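JOB MANIFEST
job_type = single_chain_structure
chain_count = 1
residues = 346
[input]
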Amino acid sequence: MQSQQINKEPSTIDVNDSLLDVKGLKTYFYMRHGKTAKAVDDVSFSINKGETVALVGESGSGKSITSLSIMRLIQSPPGKIVEGSIKLEGKELLALSENEMSKVRGNEIGMIFQEPMTSLDPVFTIGSQIVESLMKHKMMKKKEAYKQAIELLKIVGFARAEKIVKEFPHQLSGGMRQRVMIAIALSCNPKLLIADEPTTALDVTIQAQILNLMVDMKERFGSSVLLITHDLGVVAEVANRVLVMYGGQIVEEAPVKDLFMDAKHPYTEALLESIPNIDEDVERLESIPGTVPPAHNFPQGCRFADRCKYVMDICREENPKLIEHNSNRKVRCFLYKEEGGFLSGG
């Protein structure tokens, strides 16, 4: 989405002060006829305090399932987190009871969903839904919570907040509802904010406003952000670091500038080539042939092999490991070797 202008440099993260650590996460869905969909398959990454990390990839790559796994909102059956570790400041979330985890949601981890109309209760006013969150997590009295709800709505850009608190979700536009979702997500000053495709359902102008707002709110509240998106134009503007996901696995990890300057994985390269550039006069955009393989039918070897222009024989036989490549990058590809170096290809 090249037309967006955020005009903000992502803040530099100087310390390796980890907030979230995900290691070896596997979330599978058990289907009829004995098939298993490996939606998230051995995913590991971390997010530092004050950092914005973007998780990118096409639909079906496993991005949203990763976020729902962190929140422990996987519906069981058919889904189940079968292996791995999710630690928030050293606290193992997978070991918590459901009651303990419900206190983490909203209080320590806030979430903004793609379509706010499905997240906001249509029969309750905007104010009552913010008040409920404050009373539950911050133990506020109703009157105090109501005042705070108005303040939060003002912070996210509502000039007539006193009126908005009395309105219902259907009375607001899509952009306004998304602002309400941000207010609810930030109402308890969470340590981590997960934003799952927060601008997809909005027009371009409103998208830019919402992204600006997220950047401002992150700096104001001091939260870390996990931004889930398929839009690399958004990533370029707001992220510090990028995780590229394909076929339920991380295939590349890099600081945002390094990724855009020199993509390592063929999938990342293909994604970047498909972004429109206003400085280039082209009749047709590049596209990636084929589709993401279904999670219940991944190929034996590299999951991108059938769509990759650099494919080798070994790619169809083995799935490469995610390796450290140079000091600050990781890549899952047989074209590269540990600690830097290029074997062959383009």
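[summary]
The longest helix spans residues 204-221.
The chain has eleven helices and twelve strands.
exit_status = 0
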